[in-house]
Amino acid sequence: MPVIAEIEDLRRLYQRRTPRMFYDYAESGSWSEQTFRDNTTDFAHLRLRQRVAKDMSNRSVRSTMIAEDVAMPVALAPVGLTGMQCADGEIKAARAAEKFGVPFTLSTLSICSIEDVAEHTSRPFWFQVYTLKDEEFMRRLFDRARAAQCSAIVITLDLQLLGQRHKDLRNGLSAPPKLTLKSVADMMTKLRWGLGMLGTKRRFFGNVVGHAKGVTDPASLSAWTAEAFDETLDWKRVAQFRDMWGGKLIIKGILDVEDALAAADLGVDAIVVSNHGGRQLDGAMSSIRMLPQIVDAVGDRVEVHMDSGIRSGQDVLKALSLGARGTYIGRAFTYGLGAMGEAGVTRALEIIRKELDTTMGLCGERDVHDLGPDNLIIPQGFDDPTVRL
Is the pLDDT confidence value at 254 over 90? Predict the structure, then answer.
């Protein structure tokens, strides 16, 4: 087993052990992938302010996200098809998050169902929903989340229609996947992955098949997904979803101050500054560059979280220093899951916590709540979308 010192080590191992179709699904963006790349590279423009001769003992990265205690202000983001990266992937990731003490967010388009994850965990998890047209399905989805004792709902707003991801088209990745000789041959070389998939009964979208009207098998799933997303979505409809749920609510997919203000007006518990990991509107700004102005606009009214581009504990520190109250990792934990299963997710979390803790100390801070803009050297125009860095 190679030494796993950083998230990139997990990514390389993940690439070797997971079929190309599913690796490309995670490690790609839409169109030219400009936003996908900017999400990570824009973090590099933020430099850290080193401080010395300060008491760096007794450090703590513990915090809260929507009033829930967390071992560090990092949640596992909702990732569709996680159970195809590794057999029973959602269950394994949820268990790792629970043991570590951070939130896990289950995607509606997961392979393991809400009930599957609830059965194999003891701590309440978060559940992510899309804005779908099927009213009956949405109401049942919220009922199932309540029955599973989910502590929060995350509504994703930036997927009213699917952004085009060229790699997925070329690989035949759809719902269900269109297998080709090339993709099947590739899968046959991933022995560890294949044995895992042979040993599980969970291979399809567990929250949809058997629950959505007319979706009784994988063949009928494709037609449903093509028509399911609500292109007429507006804030009135989001308010209806809020009322259907009636519990803690997080709105994900905010990248504009006007939208942040509209979300805050709904009285939600948190908003997530996110561009869907660069998988939707290519050419949009990176999340980290849009974060400061959104914090300035609504940070005194609603918890602001940040998603997209985080690959290290230093990235987490930079987001927190710019005002985020919490952060989300998607690809970083997916790398760990595909590389080493549950142990890989745990290792990803350990790496990020260690990097966050060490960097915080070298910046002269002992408590994660004390981080702020003074811990960074911020280039002029960083939070101005009209300035090219």
Answer: yes
Domain total of the chain: 1
| Residue 386 covered by a domain | no
Instruction: Determine the structural domain holding residue 38 and report its residue range.
Output: 7-377
Model confidence, pTM: 0.96
User: d(Cα 179, Cα 182) in Å, to the nearest integer?
Assistant: 8
Give residue 152's identity as a one-letter amino acid code.
A
Q: What is the CATH number of the domain that holds 150?
A: 3.20.20.70
CA 288 to chain CA centroid, nearest Å: 15
- Domain presence at residue 93: yes
| pLDDT(264) > 80 | yes
Q: Please report the pLDDT score of residue 176 as a whole number.
A: 63
Q: Is residue 308 part of a domain?
A: yes
The C-alpha R_g of the chain, in whole angstroms, comes to 20
Q: Pick the catalytic residue from 45, 120, 211, 276.
A: 276
Q: For the segment 108-165, what is each residue's pLDDT rounded down to a tens digit?
A: 999 999 999 999 999 999 999 999 998 999 999 999 999 999 999 999 999 988 889 9
Residue 277: DSSP 8-state: G
**Contacts (Cβ under 8 Å, ≥6 apart) of 29:** 35, 36, 37, 165, 277, 278, 279, 282
276 included as an active-site residue:
yes
CA distances from 327 to 103, 187, 239, 335 (A): 11, 33, 24, 17
In a domain, 299, yes or no: yes
What are the residue ranges of helices labelled H in the chain? 7-17, 20-26, 34-41, 82-85, 89-100, 114-119, 135-147, 166-171, 181-188, 191-198, 218-228, 235-245, 257-265, 287-298, 313-321, 331-340, 342-362
Is residue 30 within 8 A of residue 161, CB to CB? The reply is no
Mind listing the pLDDT tens digit for each residue in 327-382?
A: 999 999 999 999 999 999 999 999 999 999 999 999 999 999 999 999 999 999 99
